[in-house]
Specification:
The protein has 193 residues and is mainly alpha-helical. It is built from six helices and two strands; from the N terminus they run H-H-H-H-H-E-E-H. It has one domain: Four Helix Bundle (Hemerythrin (Met), subunit A), CATH 1.20.120. Helices cover 52% and strands 5% of the residues. The chain is globular, with a radius of gyration of 18 Å.
């Protein structure tokens, strides 16, 4: 019997921007892998903190969805928080970051939430993202525009950089989530031993 060959590819959805749609396919694939890596995770593990003041997996998942909405708003020159509550039912602070505002504990709004809740947040953010990306054009992705952050700092950014940053942000927290899963399991093994 011949060895089975695993096919590894993803296809961008049709749209006006080949780069944007390839980016979106990348982000969708990472989300699918994240969901697979979190299969079977319990609400207790999603809410576990290594130490007070540190992020939980649930906080990170909520944060990933919130940040995607915020940065895509910036990419289309809308107010950063526009549609956030309508899309996710969360404000930018409901992920509990920074944690000090919640007494170094996870926010009560996320307590006891299951994986389905968090994946739904990401799905809703992504649905909104897909609608916005379809309006992007490759020729416009590199155009620079000024934005002013909440702290007053001014930045010159391009849509292309924003797409990069959202993917970088997602992947960085994905790695952090995998490390927290490892630490949670290791903690459980030490308690048994």
């Amino acid at each position: 019997m011949a060895a089975r060959i695993e096919i590894l590819d993803f296809k961008p959805a049709p749209g006006r921007t080949a780069l944007g749609m390839a980016w979106l396919a990348h982000l969708d694939d990472q989300t699918k892998l994240l969901a697979k890596d979190l299969k079977g995770i319990t609400p207790a593990e999603l809410g576990w903190q290594l130490r007070p003041g540190m992020n939980t997996i649930g906080m990170l998942l909520a944060h990933m969805a919130i940040v995607e909405v915020i940065w895509l708003n910036v990419a289309v020159k809308r107010p950063a928080d526009e549609g956030l509550v309508k899309t996710l039912g969360l404000t930018r602070d409901d992920d509990g970051m920074p944690n000090e505002q919640y007494g170094n504990q996870p926010p009560a709004k996320l307590k006891g939430r299951d994986l389905k809740y968090y994946l739904n947040l990401i799905r809703r953010a992504r649905t909104r993202t897909k609608g916005l990306i379809r309006g992007f054009r490759d020729a416009e992705l590199s155009r620079m525009f000024l934005r002013t952050r909440r702290d007053g700092k001014r930045q010159s950014v391009s849509q292309r950089w924003i797409l990069y940053h959202v993917a970088e942000h997602f992947s960085g927290h994905y790695g952090q989530i995998l490390m927290l899963r490892h630490l949670y399991r290791d903690r459980g093994q030490k308690m048994k031993g």
